[in-house]
Amino acid sequence: MAAYCPLPAMAPDLPVWTHAAPAPPEPQPLPLFMYPPPPPLPAGRRLLPWPVAHRPPPDFFEMDYRRTHSLVQFLTDEGAIPTPEEEETREQVIRELKKIVTDWVKTVACQERVPPRRVTATVLTYGSYTLGAHGPESDIDALCVGPCIANLPYHFFAVLRQILKCRPEVSGLQTVENAKAINTSSPQYLRRLDSRSWKSLSGVRVNEQIVQLVPDQEKFQVLLRCIKLWARRRGLHCHLLGFFAGIHLAILAAYVCQRFPNATANGLFTMFFEIFAHWPWHIPVDLHGQQTNCTRSDGCLMPIVMPCSPPELCASNMTEGTFRKIREELMRGFVLTKDLGSHDFEWAWIFEPFPYSTTYEQFLRIALCAPTSEELHDWSGWVKSRFPYLILKLEDNGIECDPNSSQEVDHTVVKPNIVYHWGLIPQSDTLLDTSSLKEDFMKYVINDVYGKQRESEDQGILLLAPGYMAHSCQAEVGGRVTGNPLKMGRQTKKKVFSMMVFCCCVHGPGSGVQGPAAALRATASGVAVTDSGTESSAAFGVASNMHGH
């Protein structure tokens, strides 16, 4: 029985119709789209359309279950989930590290003439390990929290460093005293901390907030593992090169889990692509679901809010070129996963390694070498921290690049070396002047290391004639063959224009000669090296694909 109910006086000409619910009908198959019958309308009146209720296909839930099971199995087969033995090793390392820190703080108490029972110290973990989404090769982000009587330059960077260095199980040790972190801590709970300690706790607090805001930890961990594996395979997981950092992916995964708490792993991974492939990136991604007052800096292309108080945007090195590739890869994932009823779907399509060698016609070749492997590790770490400057320099010259984080080795060079190949995307017929690009970049690297103490720098530039290298030399990216095997069998060649810069040695004031390997490495854990008599070099080159026989 329908009944006519007029609206209030503010809209007397628009009716609202209600009707009593009919008796429940007999059970019968329902169509894909259900339209409840509308009540009869008087003459000259219009009624807004009823909402459409979508019903999934009959075999949707069975297919969703199969896809979820195959997705978890795919992660296991690809080694994205650590084994129980590997988990036990990590826990043992953390226990041993806590024991070392406890013994260290007692030594500090004795030196400062404070009763040892009144001081304590511990180690807090954060990052992917704390979130439960780490892989077999992932590192462990750890934070040492100690008493205020400990002097940071001496007790931490000198005494504790020496204790760790003397441990036989420590294979390498690097420190950076001026490591930077975003300050997102709350002064309400951390009033007595100094500024450096205040900033260091941001990673721990962000992890705690994410864990609290995610409705299902197990589903979140599976989704985050999927996203991280996809980002690594498609060349999107390297913060220094302008792509995602681990905290970016964790917040995006938590956002999807918040919106769909009852979805399966397959559904969450599918919705990840559907949401962020069409996300309006002028709006920040916020787990609290409310408008934030955090200021968006100029050039922030993908704003993601860290779930802390006060709200702060995640640090990002993203450029126009890397932002464009991220959006293209998100859209590719959406296109591959949007068909929920596809029976021939394979997860290997989503996680297929990015084909650098067949996608780009020109490459920027960056070669780093040093006399020893240890010095190469220090030198390459410092140069890699300056890669964002090089990427911006390329874009200023009208050339976008797709920086590949995979490292290769040139076996024709005797010294230990690392070679990178970045895909170049010229926006016009602009010619890349590698001479000026290389000179500006090397000045930026050396100036950062030695400041103004470069008067006696010994630099040499060697220009090599154009040569050729086999196309198969660059077909293997990150241990995976991405080129066409049929083409790799031919004598396809790639023309390489090489230009090398030798940073032989820099004579600074004081005793000894210090090279670039004595630089501070700008990472979260960092390096403070005092090696002397080192020699490092960097080489740049532009490669153009010239397919032929």
Automatic annotation (TrEMBL):
Residues 220-352 form the Poly(A) polymerase central domain. It holds the Pfam family PAP_NTPase. Its main location: nucleus. One of its GO terms (cellular component) is nucleus. It is found in: Nucleus. Keywords: ATP-binding, Magnesium, Metal-binding, mRNA processing, Nucleotide-binding, Nucleus, Transferase. GO terms for molecular function: ATP binding; metal ion binding; poly(A) RNA polymerase activity; RNA binding. InterPro entries: NT_sf (IPR043519), NuclTrfase_I-like_C (IPR011068), PolA_pol_cen_dom (IPR007012), PolA_pol_NTPase (IPR048840). Its cofactor is Mn(2+); Mg(2+). Residues 62-180 form the Poly(A) polymerase nucleotidyltransferase domain. It is an enzyme of class 2 (transferase). GO terms for biological process: mRNA processing; RNA 3'-end processing. Its EC number is 2.7.7.19. Belongs to the poly(A) polymerase family. This is polynucleotide adenylyltransferase.
